[in-house]
Amino acid sequence: MAQSNSKTVVMELRGISKNYSGVPALTNVSLEVKAGEVHALLGENGAGKSTLMNVASGTIAPSTGDLLVHGTRYVALTPALASSLGIAIVHQHPAVLKDLTVLENLQVSLPRSIFKGRASDKIATELLERVGLKISLKLRVEDLTIAQKHLLEIAKALATTPKILVLDEPTAALGQDSVKLLFDLIAKEIANGTAIIYITHRLAEVRELAQVVTVLRDGKLMSTSNINEITDAGLLAQIIGRELKSTFPAKHVKAAGATPNLVVKGLTGKGFNDVSIEAYPGQIIGIAGIVGNGQSEFLKALSGQTDFTGTIEINGEAKNARSLNGKAALMPADRQREGVMMRMSVRENSALASLKKFKNLGLLSRKKEVDSVHETLTSLSIKAPGLEAPVSALSGGNQQKVVMARALLSDPVMILADEPTQGVDVGARSELYDILRKASAEGIPVVVASSDAKELEGLCDTVYVFSRGQVVQVLRDKDNREDAMIEAAVTSTIKAIRIERKEREEKLGNESFLEKFRRFLKGDYAPAVMLGIVMVALAGLIMTKTDTYFSDFNMQSILLLVSALGFVAMGQTTVMMTGGIDLSTGPLIGFLVVIASFFINDGSPMTSIALGLVTMAVVAVVVGLVNSALIRFVKFTAIAATLTTYIAIGGFAFILRPQPDGYISGDVSNILNSAIGPIPNVFIALIVAAVLMETLLRKTRWGWRLRAVGSNEEAARKVGVQVTRSIIGAYAVSSLFVFLGSILLMVQLGVGDASQGVTYTLTGITAVVLGGTSLTGGRGTYIGTFMGAILLIQVLNATVFLNLDQTWQYLLQAILILAAAVVYGVARNRKSSE
Amino acid sequence: MAQRSAAGLSKGSRFQVSKGMLTVLASTIVLFALSTVLAPSSVKPETLNGMLPFASILAIVGLGQMLVIQQAGIDLSVAGSMSLAAVIVTVNPGGDNAKLIPALLMSFGIAILIGGLNGILVGFLKLNPIIATLGTNSLLYGLVMAISHGIPRQTTPRLEAIVTSSPLGVPNTVLFAVAALLLVIFFLRNTVAGRRFESIGSSPAVASISGLRVRTHLALAYVWGQLLYTLAGVLIAGVISSPNGSMGDAYLLPSVAVVVLGGTSLLGGRGLPTATVIAAVFLSQLDQFVLALGVNFAIRTLVQAAALAIGVAIYTVDWARVRTIIQKLPGSSNRGQNQASLPSA
User: What's the pLDDT at B112?
Assistant: First the structure.
């Protein structure tokens, strides 16, 4: 093996600095990575580890400094360049696509060359076996456990046989057996001469794996040393000891004989397990630990947002989720998304949870509201242009004060602050600490979760250290020190509790009928099967009333109608696969017929007919390009974009044909209406198209990319899909299918009529919906759409045979749509909420 | 603790003018100015009196659609709902004034039921609003056919009198639109429910963390919408003396267009009722203006499309970026200055 020169430097980061609008995230950091070596990267949250690795993998360009990879100098890398240099990264949050199967995830993310030569599923199975993942390749990724998703992500990285592999906290979500397997894999990679950068918070893992360890603190390099030349205490000393910049209020002195005002016993919920805490009036409770170890979930449960088992007592009163929701004020960590309503005003944001207080004779009193909000915000010394300024105009610290004001105004039974000072400047930090201390002094229990141990040491009276959802250490009074917290967090050896997989496996063998049915409903082809059953049943019903139903004439007329609709609906399916919608299909089909009415008439020469068809196709593609350009480049929503073209196309159609005119060639009609027995040739073409598209969707890169984009645009981009190109392609394909449909509609109408066609927009969407394609993107089938189109036309036709009037045409359509939507929708929603 | 004085925190004025409002108001004023100069016939009192009832009806429908769109939804059942209301108040009384009130009650009762159905489907069963309202739209058209059997009837004289008379100098339809607008504004700005409603549209995540009943308000949006479409449907039955069963179709897309033009985002958020109503007047007058210029229907449609495209682009395009791009075009070659500068050494 490559042992002889295992100490070759494969990558060198030299003097890397990175500033974000003047704030340094990294300052002059240099790192050497050698082949056949595990280089551990240690540091607190925000120490700059991930930023450094983003520089190494090409997602971030450094402000200064450069990189040497295999001896070549680069000022910055791009993700594509990094991957061609053999650099692979396993993200902390796996970039997997939930609507695609395991196999498809591998196929869309990995280069074609990996699947060359042998059957794809064989190769994929081998890739998964390497990481010990024994699951069906056909399983949809959303059905995987978090640990399985991580293993899939690792499998993807290893598949490219990287020269340099970056692992960002790979064990955070893994169970014990998987961790062992991962370590074995790392050993194997090392033996093969791969260089590995291993980001972690756990000293135990560093000891077990690494040869070299680098510590970062505050974006600066503290040291790089061989693992056997440094003690745990030495490492700890370098990780901690951030400079303290804020001042903290005085701590609480517990009164003798006080009774606790918050008692939590054995609290268990999603992400945390058997947590017990206790607080006395005036105390601030801290929750410490590495980010993502259940702290946020615990606070959410305390605020009544999620269900839990165990008990919560506030001032001796038992509380459940229902009685806490809206009463226990939560200041969420994700301020941008959950904390403030960006486009609403400071006043509206502050008053949100206390509107009922400002009522006067049943109505909101603006005066009461403004006065009250103004008073509170002033007491928090907020800096804002005014009460009516949008909250987005405020700095992070002042936004946090707005959240704080909302909490205080709502007269909360408890205040829960999750990372209250993240993104807050130093001055405002001290003020926020004062506010929390003051609230606590008034007897309201205050719980603060923070990844900043220094902050918890300064602010809190008692700190509970979390690791993997459990309390591993309680630090009171003098023991409440930063080093104790970090030590407890990084030396913890608790492994993630993974009971879900076992439960799932047990469930799979022992499902009730209802569960089996639900699992069937979740499958891609369930809608098509159900529609088939309804069709047969409906046909059977009609046959009892009439014997002309299966006559050649009736079959032909039904199937001709199906064909035009089917093509339009297949186009719509393509767009919906990306999560978009194309409202312009109806006007477009009418417009194309209008164009045809100028070229394809009785006696037109072949050249004219050919020219007509070419013109129609070109116009269709142009419409598709306009739609997608409005969406991708001018940032219209899909509805606004295609609504605009919808109206415009109607205008163009009336310019060309103010009155119906231009009779379509009878010869062309005869050719298109030709049939083999009861089956029109064009219907056979539709079947071929549906099967072809379905195959493309499942078996080709085009199809995987299309669904990847609809499933999760961000993750799709991370695995290398060109999102804009996929979406432009989808709208062009949609319009081309409308073109095919227009050839058939042209025969049915027989004349260029600008007022025809618009109904195809909604009937097309209806067919797609019946076929089970999801409007949110990522999943669906062309076969389902095909079946949906048939059933829709069949129902309209059936009313004639069953002597039902137009009322029933509408009612049956309504029943079909709503039944389909509820059955498919509920099956899927149940899934995603599990 | 408050070392720094915050005495400067201004309470702000009571009335805030949004960007959407400014844009659409300015456009409408320009349009009327152009109409006066270029096509005086389009601003004659008779023409305006002909245009205003339809503008008012569009405004009312638009308000309903706005309440749904601000919850990040969309309501396709506008068409069926308006048609059904128009049919019920004409067919059921069959010209008999005495039967008008029961017909009205029935219309609004159905509106609540259908809105509730939409709300349950979207709010609680989490169905896509396009699918759910597409389904209920069919349901409504089924009812239209069941009641009318496809035969239009004459409007009752009383309804026609109430809707078309203009005791205050403007057609009564305008008064209905103004009343609907004031009601919506009042609801959104002056009631607890309305303020919560608006916050939920703006950010369901924040509202949910604050303990608000997100799903209920989301569902109710569809009920409020239905009530307004039904009012519009009743008015159209008064304006057009024998409405057929598909009156509402012509209002579906314009209802979305006026909301978008008024600056309410299709992704949800704050609703701009006044701007929506002005946008309805704008679109209607645009129609009259282009008509008075003597161009045909086709051109009118294209002008509408252009207005919509420009109206949306005002909000979606990052104009600051466009300006920097334009500045960077040949002539000024100071490129790359706002990039994270890379060392060239």
Answer: 97
Secondary structure letter of residue A193 according to DSSP: T
Closest among A587, A573, A568, A565 to A769, alpha carbons compared = A573
Residue A495: pLDDT over 80:
no
- Tell me what ipTM this predicted complex has: 0.85
The answer to whether A822 contacts B127, with C-beta atoms less than 8 Å apart, is yes
What is the per-residue burial (b if ≥16 Cβ within 10 Å, else e) of A681-690? Answer: ebbebbeebb
The region that residue A720 occupies, defined by phi over 0 for left and psi between -120 and 50 for alpha, beta otherwise, is: left
Q: By the CB < 8 Å criterion, does A143 face chain B?
A: no
Q: Please give the average per-residue pLDDT across B328-334, as a whole number.
A: 54
**Is the CATH code 1.10.3470 the one for domain B20-27+42-316?**
yes
**Euclidean distance between the first and final Cα of chain A, in Å?**
47
Nearest CA in chain B to A343: B202
This prediction has a pTM of 0.85
* CA distance to partner chain B, nearest, from residue A1 (Å): 38
Q: State the best of A338, A404, A796 to mutate against chain B, taking most chain B CBs within 10 Å.
A: A338
Look at A340 and B211 and tell me if their CB atoms are within 8 Å.
Answer: no
A76 touches chain B (CB under 8 A): yes
Distance from the Cα of residue B286 to its chain's centroid: 17
Determine which helix (DSSP H) or strand (DSSP E) holds B54, and give its type and residue range: helix B45-69
Chain A stretch 368-397, residues whose beta carbon is closer than 8 A to a beta carbon of chain B:
370, 374, 377-389
Contacting residues for A123 by C-beta, under 8 A, at least 6 apart: A114, A115
CA A247 centroid distance within chain: 39
Tell how far CA A611 is from the center of its chain.
46
With CA atoms as reference, the chain B residue closest to A626 would be: B309
Question: In chain A, which residue's Cα lies nearest the Cα of B319?
Answer: A634
CA distance A771 to A786: 7
Asked whether A606 and A587 are in contact (CB, 8 A), the reply is: no
- Pairing mode, strands A309-314 and A317-319: antiparallel
In chain A the domains, ranked by start, together with CATH numbers, are 2-239 (3.40.50.300), 262-491 (3.40.50.300), 520-833 (1.10.3470)
Task: Say if residue B6's pLDDT is above 50.
Answer: no
**CA distance linking residue A39 with residue A27, whole number of Å:** 20
A196 forms beta bridges with A38, A165
* Strand A284-288 relative to strand A72-74, pairing: unpaired
Task: Kindly state whether A766 is in contact with chain B, defined as any CB-CB distance less than 8 angstroms.
Answer: yes
Please tell me which residue of chain A has the smallest CA distance to B316: A635
Among A53-57, A243-247, A446-450, B67-71, the least confident range: A243-247
Tokens 């309680």 sit at which residue? A474
d(CA B57, CA B176): 9
Angstrom distance (rounded) from CA B218 to CA B60: 20
Across the A:B interface, residue pairs with CB atoms under 8 Å apart total 249
Q: Are A186 and A196 in contact (CB under 8 A)?
A: yes
Of B138, B212, B305, the CB nearest to A817: B138
Measured CA to CA in angstroms, residue A568 lies from A500, A504, A594 at distances of 43, 41, 17
Token readout for A723 is 């999102």
Q: A758: which 2 tokens?
A: 């618009």
Q: CA of B241 to nearest chain A CA: how many angstroms apart?
A: 24
